[in-house]
Design brief:
By secondary structure, this protein is mainly α. Helix content is 78%, strand content 0%. The protein has one domain. The relative contact order is 0.07.
């Protein structure tokens, strides 16, 4: 658990170190990405459903 928390802290710090323009560009890129799930995501969702929705 502590490794996960450490990684999260590093990611949050790295994000905070971005300039305002970099943050805006990052968020805009996330918002512009296609909303359709790709093949890998559909397969993963199917596996998840088979395992956890019994």
């Amino acid at each position: 658990m502590s490794i996960v928390a450490a990684k999260r802290t590093v990611r949050e710090k790295d994000f905070a170190d971005l300039s305002y323009r970099q943050r805006v560009a990052f968020v805009e890129t996330l918002l512009k990405t296609p909303t359709k799930p790709n093949t890998k995501l559909r397969k993963a969702a199917k596996r998840y459903a088979q395992i956890f929705q019994k």
